[in-house]
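Changelog entry: the FAD-dependent oxidoreductase record was regenerated in this release. Current contents:
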Amino acid sequence: MLDTTINTQTQDMLDSLNAALESGDIDRAAALFATDSYWRDLVAVSWNLKTVEGPDGVADMLRNQLEHTRPGKFEIQSGEIPAEEGGVITAWVTFETKSGRGWGLMRIRDGRIWTLLTALQELKGFEENRGTRRPMGAEHGARKNRTSWKEHREAEEADLGYGTQPYVLIVGGGQGGIALGARLRQLGVPAIVLDKHDRPGDQWRSRYKSLCLHDPIWYDHLPYIKFPDNWPVFTPKDKVGDWLEMYTKVMEINYWTRSEVTGASYDDASGKWTVEVNRDGETVTLEPTQLVLATGMSGKPNMPRFPGMEDFKGTIQHSSQHEGPDPWIGKKVVVIGSNNSAHDICAALWEGDADVTMVQRSSTHIVRSDSLMEIGLGALYSEEALANGVTTEKADMIFASLPYKIMHEFQIPLYDQMRERDAEFYAGLEKAGFDLDWGDDGSGLFMKYLRRGSGYYIDVGASQLIIDREVKLAKGQVDHFEEDAVVLADGTRLPADLVVFATGYGSMNGWAADLISQEVADKVGKVWGLGSDTTKDPGPWEGEQRNMWKPTQQEHLWFMGGNLHQSRHYSLYLALQLKARLEGLETPVYGLQEVHHLS
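Regenerated structure tokens:
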């Protein structure tokens, strides 16, 4: 039987919120929020990605934005019923603003709003042509000299960038650039995606041959086209590459291969960029209004330098250059690092009969893949979740509805379960001398990823090789190279024919310095991280990913990146911000990202 009390409480709260917003009574609206509450807004109210905290934070955002964006018409989403568990009412809601429509998730605790997520989904008057608005495709009737779909596409591709300038230029054609390109295409925003490789998907094809996605398939869909039901749970990298190539073509993304930016500058007077591009040997000058760096969190290799490297007689590679074990059968290989890539490369080299040593420089968080799937992801991204009505879209919103400030509180119990479930596994690693951690506060993998983007491994088999001493383990910092060895700071000498630096990647901010200027990079500041004041994520607290998918201090410069899940979900909000600017809508930004931590 429907619990009408819960439904009534939810409706009363929405009615009160609507009345306060409609009347412009900001204090009354803010008073509906609990003292320790969070309103996370994705573009709808703030024209930003912004989380405000407590009644004072709510009041400040509304004082700045209410007149401009006019949020209201909050309703319980059609077909959804509020639920109560542990004293918390959870309700799916829809709403409107002056410019658009959205949906979200509200939690009520002790008669006040505890968390509220508002996410813009479409712009009024500029809705995507999908569903009942899908294009006809065929033009029925007879007309002389009509052009076919193919001829129209060929003409568009020949003109864009030469006769007609793109409104948006996306630098980087991996999953982030492709997802954003697809969103912009559906919104009618003229855009070009640039990539240096020969084919879409080559970013994946060029990596070491054993690479597979460590995230399960339900977590990794791209916008509009989901992977088919027979797709493997963990996708091999070449299969990912083929999917991206197919997707780029089917979604009609204007994608320039073999194209590299050689320089870019912004003109304040015209509000446009001048971008010099080497397109397969031809110099092309583009003048987009908006420039998006989708060069990837894993795009700029971090390659350290040590004394003696120039005298080393073997081969030195960054993990991004390593293609696999085939040339190294019977050879001695030293892999510097102990996170995802290091483990994957070590396991593949061992399988290829190389003599492998991993050098662990600092502690690593490890979680077994099956435990992560069942405990960490199963409720949101799995066949079981789908059977329970949790679609990919719902899962994304549920995950997004947990403010970063308190997300670790929800993660810690999950990782405590994993630690207990796999106690014997962890004991084996520690006995082998491997240094483990669970994040600064025990919150595990997801928080490490969101805070610093590094420091973890999802175990798909390499850990057992370390436990069994099949992959040797050394610990410490590299001091110098000799002709045939790597020498650590404690004097340990590791003979090597190949040294692979699995040392990660630099900030996307570095791409801004390389492609535009150091001045612009400094103006923007650090990209990624929450300001959690944990290892490699110094404060102050921001509450959102720094400079990702939102306006930056450099006008008309944006950053697009993250894993496949983030590329799918956040590409919508970036695309809506760009579309609104193309159409001349009022887009006053609340809480523009401040500049922190340029180093």
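The mean pLDDT is 95.
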